[in-house]
Amino acid sequence: MYTNILKLSRALNHVDERPDFPIPQIVFYQTGVGSEPNLYSEYVQGATGYSLVVKVQEAYAFIAQNFHPGDEIYLFGFSRGAYTARMIAMIIGAIGVLNRTDMDNFADIFVSYQKLGKLKDGAEKTALQKKLDPWLSHDAPGKKRADSDQDTFSIKCVGVFDTVGSLGLPEELTHHAPSTKSLFGFSDTFLGEHIERAYQALALNETRADFNCAKFDQTTGGRKKGQVLKQCWFTGSHSDIGGGWHDHDLSDLTLTWMVANIEDMLSVDMTYIKSLPDPVALWGEQQPHDPRTGIFILSDKISRTLPTKTDDVTHETIHPSVLRQAHMLPQLQKNIDEDPALVCQLLPFEQEMREHWPYVPGKYDAKQSRGSAQVISVTSAKKDFLWSSTKEVVSVGAQLGQELFREVRQTTTTTSGGDNAQASHGSSWFAQIAHESHVGAIIKEFSGSQTTPKH
């Protein structure tokens, strides 16, 4: 009933005691876009992206406040939280990590950077570029502080679960709201060369057009630099990948995969991770949840673009657990038959978890999984009424949200990251919007140790 981001934040030890000297691990957990307790604010934020801007600023401010040169930065997120994590990574790639006093300029830099991405060539863009040059140049103070250059990495790892760059509501309901891309003025498709490792778990069975995934594309420069990129497809809809259901076999697989890839970098409480599975089926055999329930029956339907072969741009693979499904997508089976190398190998920790998968036959009825979302049958007339009523509510929210967004462009807002995300979204279709957008940031404080770390 918790997302993988919350579980991961709780699993990280306060100190990594494996090296010769203890290394503190500072964890920042941020609730998702639209997860504030006011229901109306969820409509406003979900429909406009207003909160997304604040979340990016808030998380970057945490990093700037706690970062010391030599520290390692890790960013994790799910859904719009994954998008937030990738935006933060992009900003660090652009300006590095500002110190506490330079943070007085961050709001202006942030807004100007947004605007720069949306401007076409012209005098205004040239003037704005000149204004930003002191912060974007090779020898900018933030870049020097983050030790960011062509030969180094300023971010150790970005790990995400099924990045969603849209606002997460059916497009028909948000036609008055600005898109996420227009809010930030740039796309996050390309993986920045300042990121050493990037991992993404992707949902095979997500069919909502408004929840289409944003993959990473690795650049030639990133490959030459030794950057690691892994994007792995798993059985499940969007929420099965990032977690939040009471029956969470599928999200346990994605969390295990992520932990297996980062355990050499971060100190993780493996006992806690091993205690999380409470399976309703054999390893890999839980059926995915239907994403098209409640308000999401209004969403346009799509089929995600699956890998047809291995390549050195997206580095996509299929997780071995997918082969355990009774009914595999025909196109996927065809792709695997033509290129068996698409199926990746289990890492040692994943193999251990599979061998000790604690499934108890008969404990749960797989056909009546715990906390399954209510499937709403809607007649054509009722669907039209639901559509028009919801459009009216969200359109009002969008208008107010745009006013709020104009305000946030003038200032930086900082609030505390909360821990109020524990409710399962199995009981409420709209709660998915609030639940699927968490982000976490970790700073590993090498500089706080008694001995200079090895690089």
Automatic annotation (TrEMBL):
- Lineage, top-rank taxon, reads Eukaryota
**Pfam annotation, one family:** T6SS_Tle1-like_cat
Domain T6SS Phospholipase effector Tle1-like catalytic: start-end pairs: 2-260
Q: Which InterPro entries does the protein's record reference?
A: AB_hydrolase_fold, Tle1-like_cat
Instruction: Output this protein's name.
Output: T6SS Phospholipase effector Tle1-like catalytic domain-containing protein
Q: Which organism is it from?
A: Serpula lacrymans var. lacrymans (strain S7.3)
